[in-house]
Amino acid sequence: MVLNPYICHMNKYIYLFVALIVLSCGSPADSLQDLDLMKEGIPLKIKAPADAVVKQKDMGIFKDITIKEGDNFYIQITAARVLNSDVTARIQEEINSVKELDVFSKVIKNDERGFIFEKKKDDKLTYDFRSIKIVGNDEYLFQSGLIGTFSLEDVELMYDAVK
């Protein structure tokens, strides 16, 4: 079988065109920027959309910090004195806690820094996460905002933003 050289030459351009499209699209995480939380009294940096709104409430024994932009990016951080410096044990405590929720369905991802889980209510699936960092004498618990429904893609983006 003899291949037409014109078709082979065109295939090279098609592959190049497809490769350029894939590379130029990037991932949703590429749209996030560094956000230094030090001005909120938290010695951490996360990723967030450029126009995210940061709010802090000092609740006495803990701080509640939210980072929100639109309906799909809403991170809540609870900062408190560390009671258990074993992050693995703390993550397991959080898993046990969310498993007690009526809407808990299953853990989707679990690693050394936290987990993503599925919630099911009235046959509708939503997602949430927990991630824990310990810095000095303080524990930082990250999760998606308490108000809103988030897709798995939304939660994966937020989870990766708090690495």
Question: What is the fold's blueprint, element by element?
Answer:
Blueprint: H1 5-25, E1 33-36, E2 45-48, E3 53-58, E4 62-69, E5 73-81, H2 87-99, E6 104-111, E7 114-121, E8 124-135, E9 138-144, H3 152-161
Antiparallel strand pairs: 1-2, 3-4, 4-5, 5-9, 6-7, 7-8, 8-9
What does this structure look like?
- The chain has helices at 5-25, 87-99, 152-161, and strands spanning 33-36, 45-48, 53-58, 62-69, 73-81, 104-111, 114-121, 124-135, 138-144.
- The chain is of the alpha+beta class and 163 residues long.
- The protein has a single domain (31-161), classed as Protein Transport Mog1p, Chain A (3-Layer(aba) Sandwich), CATH 3.40.1000.
- A hairpin with a 2-residue loop joins strand 6 (104-111) and strand 7.
- The longest helix has 21 residues, at 5-25.
- The protein is globular.
- The relative contact order is 0.15.
- Mean pLDDT is 86; it is low at 10-26.
Compact overview of the structure:
The protein is α+β, with helices and mostly antiparallel strands. 27% of the residues lie in helices and 40% in strands. The protein has three helices and nine strands; from the N terminus they run αβββββαββββα.
What tags apply to this protein structure?
single chain; Protein Transport Mog1p, Chain A; alpha+beta; seven-stranded antiparallel beta sheet; 163 residues; 3 helices; two-stranded antiparallel ribbon
